[in-house]
Every structure is written in C-alpha cells, then in structure tokens.
Fold each of these.
Amino acid sequence: MPGKSKLGWNRLDTQQMVAFAVISVAITVFVSVFSYTRSRSVLEDAVRRHGRTLLTSIEADAAEKFATGDLAFFKTYVQDLAWKDPDVIFVAVVGADNRIIAHNDEKEVGGSWVEPQVASWGSMKIKERVVRRANRPVFELTIPVEDGGKRLGSLQIGMDYTPVFSGLRSLAKDIALAGLLVFGISILASRLVSGRITAGLSRLVASAGEISSGDIRAQVPEEGYDEVRILARAFNAMGGSLRPILLRIQQLGNSLGDFTGKISNMIQDQAASASQQAASVSEVTATMEELSRTSHQIAENAESVKNASAKTAEMAQRG
C-alpha cells in the first residue's frame, strides 16, 4: 500500500505504543531519580546528624583537654565511644602537628594524618566526605578544635555508611522493577487502546473497499470510541447520499451502453451500404471500360471499311 512503512513505523498503533512507552519511561525515570535523590538525602542526613552529635559532644571539652595536655582523656573517650556506638567505625584525635594522638585502633596512634581536602560546612567548619575503609563505605566527619582562633588539633569520626549503600541499592532495584512493571503495563494499555482505535478504522477501510467494488449497500457498525462512532456515522451518511447518485450513474451507464450499441449497429449498416455502393460503382466502371473497348474496335472496323472503300473506288476509277 502506498505510504505504508515496511516496518510498520507509520502505523497508528505502533506510534501510539511508542508514545506511551516514551511517556512511561520518562515518568519512571523522573520518579526514580527523585525518589533515589530524596532517599539518599534522608539517609545521609540521618548519618550526618548522628555523627555531628557525637563530634560536638567531644568538641565541648576538647579545647580544654588540649590546653592542659590531658591526652589520657582522649584515649579513654574514643575507646568508650567506639565500643558503645555500633555505628561508629573509628574515632581519631589529631594534634596541631597532624599526628594522631588518640584512636580506637591503637595501631593508628602516632601515625601521620592528612586533612581532607573538601570544603568545610557551617560555622563549626565541619568537613564531610564518603570514603572506603577496609572495603566498606564510611561517612567521615572532621571538625577543628580552636582556641582564640588558634588551631589546637582536629577531631575525626567515621560513621558506618553501609546501611545507606544497602538501602540505596535495594531502592534502585525496587525502582528498576517498578519501572519495568510500569513500562509493561503502559505497552499493554497502549496496545489495547490502539487496537480498539485501529479496529474501527479498519472497518471503515473495509466498507470503503466494498463500496469501491460496487457494493453500495455496505454499512459501518457505529461502535467503539466516540470519535470512531462519529466517523462511522458520517461515513454511513455519506454512503447513503452516494447511493442514489451511484444508482443514477449506473442507469445512465446502461442507457449510454444501449445508445452506443444502436450507434454501432447504424455504423455497421452504413458500412454495409457503402460496400454495396462501392461494388455497384465497380460494376459500372467495368461496363464503361467494356463499352470503351467495343467502341474502339468499331472505330477500327470503320476505318478498315473506309480504307477498303477507298481502294475499291480507286480501282474502279482505274478500270
């Protein structure tokens, strides 16, 4: 059929199904991104609040302990904090020379410390970042300890970030499954809707084909969606208006056929008469040619008699 794509991309049901699929995917992606971002923000905020609470509780006495050199306080405090709170991965106290002076892991004490190269947040200049320690994600918070603008040291705490990662992975899987479900439902719904629409249009096409083949009594069932019913009703009204015209044309065609037949017979009769006249003319022509030959012979005979008479007269005069 002219204008129809070989792959069916120009079909109404195909384009409608693609449109439904694109819309469903767009909505799913938007909802997924929004849900994922929102959930991540909520989970991170919970870990952040917990870590900040612990940091500020240490920072309240840290300046005084730094000033007095009471390092035993820090050692006891970080051990107790890591033991009491299961969400705490590590706690570190760093001196002004960036050496670790207290840590819940004794092997880290005395080691060098590198300050996180991230932007600080808020008036307390807290630095936050997510790192991996011992193959597990850790939400790390660092706060400086200052006295009169002079930096005395830093406090750092690492919160277990695994529940956040696990929750986000689980959420991503759920969102993916929900997206696939929505995509499948949208494809099925678009298939059903487009099938009902194209079914009505197919009936219109079939009825138009019947009318074009000569069956002027063809009718389209007025069913389906409102637009399809209105189109079918208009098609039937058009067919009803065309039937008298087509019948009149058919009658005129029949009359014209009869008239053409009569003209053909008259032409054949005229041709026969012309043939007869041509035969008569041929006969007259032959007769005139025969008369011409006969007259010529008579003239020749008369000439011979004339010559003979002249010779006879001449001989008579001589005699």
Note: The first helix runs from residue 12 to 68.
Amino acid sequence: MPPTPRPKVVPAHPHTRLRARDLTAVDHLTVVSPHLDDAVLSCFALMRAARAVTVITVFAGLPPAGTEPALYDRLTGSTDPRRRMTARRREDRAALATLGAKPVHLDLVDNPYRRTPPPTDDVVAAIVAAVPRRTTVLAVPGGFGTHPDHRLVAEAAPLAAKHLDLELIAYADYPYAATYGWPSWVTGRPADPLLDPQSTWDAARRRIRHHGLVDDVVVALPPALRRDKIATFAHYATQVAVSEMGPSKMVSSPARIGFEMFFRRAGEPA
C-alpha cells in the first residue's frame, strides 16, 4: 500500500485573530445580504457586537403570481414561489428580531425567477437608497462561492459604500467560504495535504483586495455563541434542510460553525 500522506504543518498566513467578545461595538452596522439568511449565517458575531443593526436583503422580491417553481423550490418542497418568498420574509423578520436588528427587503427577485441579472448600477442605486443615514459601517459580501447573486452584490455593495463615504468591511459568505472546510490557518489545525480549501477563494480575494481590504480577520465563536447562531438560523425554517444539504450539515458542522471571517483596511479597529 502507498504511504499515507503526512499532515502539513499550519502554514503561515498574515491575519488578525479575535474572540467574538473582543469585537468593537459598532454604533450602527448595516449588513448588505444577498438573500434572506445570509447575514445571520455570515455576520452573526458582528451583529451581536453592534449597538444597532440594519440588514438590507437585496434579492427579497416577490416573484409574480403564477411563477413556475424552480428546482430550488422543488428541492425545498415549495410549489408556489411567491408564497414561499412571503414566508421567507416573515422568517427573516423573526430571526432578526432575536438580534434586535431591523430588516429591509428590496424588491429585486432571486436568480431563478429572472431571465437576466439587473444592471450593477441599478443594484448600487437600490442599496444606496436603503442604507440608513445613521450607518457607521457597511458590511458587504465578499462573493465567495459561485452563486451569481452573491457575486453581483459583492460587486455593487462596495460601490454603494464609496458613494455614501462609509467605512467598508467585507465578510466571507458562509457556508460557501467553508464548503471544503476552513483553511488550516483559520482553524489552527494541521493542513490536509490532499485538500486546499483556500484554492476556491481566488476570485473573492481579488475582489476584496481591489477595495483595499487587506486585513484578514478570523473571529472565533465560543460554544454558546455557536448555539445561539444555530438557534437564530432555525427561524429560517424553509431553508434549514437545504442549507445544511441534508445530512451533510453544511451549516452546523463543528468543523465549520466555529469561525466567521471578515476583511477590513489595514489599521482599522477590531
């Protein structure tokens, strides 16, 4: 038999490590979320630390009555996309209420219900119009993974921050950023010599670096916060099983749920 590859040592990677309790209490954090649940999945620790939070969900529009169910609808047991999106908005309000966060639902429709994506300028304008004036930090998706809605919002939202002259941070879209697990420098565990999760990050990293966000920040979630995050996500009842990929536990797997990541400019406070 061939020899079993030895685990690699944890490779060096410049980054900042924070405990969730050490995050700065932002005066008013506004999170731009591609879909109803992305903010809770990706920014739970940041939202818990902030004094006030608004979550703008970009693709929360109701599909026209009579829209045929897409594959995603059938996968989640839905036969009526409009009714399902109405339910998802209700779930979002319940989930964000547990964080004291205000939901804002834009009327752009999700990818399965349109023929072409909206122009980037239209998405920028919609976000700009929705951001509360009291916002001090705008958190936007990094666009990890391949979902076109995440990629589009990752392109548009930083332009909205620039237009509004707001402090910008990007977050690692969860669970997409950890589909194959977190890199070993995130977890602190030896690297698997036959698996490099970070190799899937190239496109998102280029986008993030383009906006000057060069400080990779790893936030460690203690067990109690992990449980709270899972409990909050449970309010998105129509999405739990599909997001978990059934028995794969894509969201709640102990190998993934213990960390969140965001990216900021060098020298900014935690």
Note: The mean pLDDT is 95.
Amino acid sequence: MIGAPGNPTTSDPTQIDGTAVLYLRDDSGSWYESVATRSSSIVDGQTGLSVALQPELFVVGSPYADDVGTAEGAILVHRRATFYRGRATVTPLHDEQPLLLRAGREFAGAPYLVLGSVTGTAPATPLGGVVEVPLVFDAYTQLTLMHLAPVDDAFDVLKSRGERNASFVLPPGLPAAFDGLEVHHAFVAVHPETFEVITSDPVTVRIEL
C-alpha cells in the first residue's frame, strides 16, 4: 500500500487531492496495481499521507477531506479484495461512478452480477445457506436482476486476476425528486469450479442534481 498525498487525480493540475494505491502480486511474482483510492471531496489534498495495511483491511488517512464543508478530514477504511467506488457522488457534470470489482485471483473467470438497492443495505437479502447480499431487495434490485439498471458491465466474468471494472451512470433528465437519493450496489460472484458464492461489501453513490 503506497500513499501519494501530492498526486493530482484529475486533469486539473491545481487540484492536488492525493491518492493511495494497493498493489498485489500476480502468479509470476510481479507487482501490479489493484486499486487506487481517494477521498470524494478535497480542499487541499493529502489523501494518502498515512496508510495502514492488514490482511483483510486497508486504511487511508485523508486529513483535508471536506465532504461537509468543514475540512475536518476523514479516515477511509476498505476491505481488501471486494468492491470499491471511484466517486461518492454523481452529478450532471460528473455523471459516472466507477465500480471496481476485486474478488481475488482464485475467482478468475467467475461469472458475476452487480445488484443494487435504493432502500438500503440492511437487512441483507439471503441467497440461501449463509450467503447474504448486503442490500435490501426492492424495485431497483429487480431492475438490476433484469439488466435494466443504469450499470455498465453489470454482468460478465471476472478477468485473469479476479478483477473487473463496471460503472453506475446517472440517467439523463432525472426529475428533481431524485436529488439526494443514495443508490447502493454490491456484487455476487460464483467460483467457476467449486461453485462457491461470494458477495462483496456494498458501495454507495449519492445523486446530486
């Protein structure tokens, strides 16, 4: 885990918000970038000034995060090898939230499905046995099951490192009633040989019109 607190993450070189990058080893022993994480709203950068790594978690310090207009800072906590978001909010100007699926190399070639909910993440929806999807089943979940939700690459197979990128795209022309709505997504993957089913953590995006 490498912190890069002075790294510009947009095309605007004056916006030095910083980032932190998680690297993993592939089967040949070579390192590769698995995911980069950053705070969603920055006043003066420094995301990645401090990082901590454990087997199941990584933590990134973002001392100038400003999600509520006070620049009080934030600690970003992520589970490793699950699900990451590239943006916490979507707007008509920035209308896409990247979704990074990271199931681990043992799930290479596994089929996956991204599901969603606008109701919340608890209580979870059981899939049978002890497997649960951390989403409340609602009409939006039904749309994701029918592949009618605004999620690109919502259903496919994971690549050679058990990874895949998808995205939630803000539909154009949404009425003002959708302003402030939070949309939650999680993915389900099935091991291609053992048929083990795994579910990710949920990620949330807020619509701001």
Note: The radius of gyration is 17 Å.
